[in-house]
Amino acid sequence: MAATHALRLRPLLSTARPTPPRATAGARRGPAPAFVVVRCSFAGAPSAVQALKINLIPTKPVEGQKTGTSGLRKKVKVFQQENYLANWIQALFNSLPPEDYVGGTIVLGGDGRYFNKDAAQIIIKIAAGNGVGKILVGRNGLLSTPAVSAVIRKKEADGGFIMSASHNPGGPNNDWGIKISEIKTADIPDVDLSSIGVVRSGDFTVEVIDPVSDYLELMENVFDFQLIKDLLSRPDFRFIFDAMHAITGAYAEPIFVEKLGADPGCILNGVPLEDFGNGHPDPNLTYAKELVFTMFGTHAPDFGAASDGDGDRNMILGKRFFVTPSDSVAIIAANAQAAIPYFQSGTKGLARSMPTSGALDRVAKKLNVPFFEVPTGWKFFGNLMDAGKLSICGEESFGTGSDHIREKDGIWAVLAWLSILAHRNKDKKVGERLVSVEDVAREHWATYGRNFFSRYDYEACESDGANKMMDHLRDVIANSKPGEKYGDYTLQFADDFSYTDPVDGSTVSKQGLRFVFTDGSRIVFRLSGTGSAGATIRLYIEQFESDTSKHSLDAQTALMPLIDMALSVSKLKDFTGRDKPTVVT
Question: Which residues are catalytic?
Fold first, then answer.
């Protein structure tokens, strides 16, 4: 089966540049830059490249080079074709009036995967050739996605490029990505990205920065590091973090070990590698096998976590206990005001993506704060954050975050959970039974009920069959009526989810096919474009249960009647030939 991973170059583009909010008293909590795709905003200034020699390289449009929701993602070998990457970067600048980027400052970094170093040099030279005044680039080209957002906010930069394919594998045979008539490239030497410092060519400046320091400073302003340190230094508490040989390996030791005092042995797969150690840096039960094996073993640590390729996703585990991403964001939101200083005044609002379970909805109702259900895609959260309507949000795809930046943030989620555990155990003496991850989850279910949830991914399906299945489901929805029976379930409504942004009034449609039943159960179907080969069908299954005596049921057991019904209604096997999913979460 063809590999479905890619590397992506994402443009992160800001519309405002305030100081990051802080958790201390009197701190500023104003709106922050929104990040959108293919729209840069750079401060205008006189030409910054008058002293540079600019080479004009003839080129032509590339067939099939189409920007997606989060940038451009293709196989590495595609990006290595002559001028392929250069064409796309130049096209971004061509799409903007010169006054929007000349003399501006942009941030550049990535997850350390194969081809990033070569790509960084190409991007630097094209930016210089088009009049950008300064580039801030992480040492060795390393910056996690959350750190890029943090640097943009702190340095008041105008935007940035993230070289990453997120949670997909890396290497020369896998994918690369980036979250025309001629190419303008500055005739300047390659920049030494291994040494922190400033390099000038004429009026163009490249500053190589520490990839960790600005992000670490932000985390110290969000969380009570001393509270977390007290937990991690306990002799009766064990913690393990799996960086999956990806970008958070560069952050794990400075944050967890040096700042928070964790045992150095707590970091698993902590060295970032260009091919991620031939692994798939996707923090879920399928791909984080080493961590899962450890956490479900006989002598499991008390708390385990992992992050993905570019550091914006997370997985949370207790001792022989998995916390679904849907439950994780709900539990963080329910405990945030008590455990995290940044939220000491409460939350402004909560939001989730449509496929994510309704666990967060129930927290919002109890807290009496606004709640939003948005399409999949972090940009929808960003608009709400910029308008001051949203504090904490999450997606079932292992993405969790808050308005401290405008990206989901894997390490932030880990620190949030450590804060909750530290707060719940701060008065426990050594030798007393500690409140565990499982305890926190079960107490949450007892208060709010449990939303059993699972996602089935069918990766690299033939696009034709996948599209025919979705067309079939649209026909089923068009002919459906409330009150119809689907096995033991009674239909409340079925639709193709659409969303009108409450901030700017923009509307998006065809965001997922939903079947919602009268008991609160749901099945949702979506096609995902995060791979670079074929189509990924995602099936989401959810059932609410208020009876605490049933909260210990295995999720797959509890959901099996819904799963069987969903597969029957969709005729997934008939259309795709698949009799089992690639990944179950």
Answer: 166
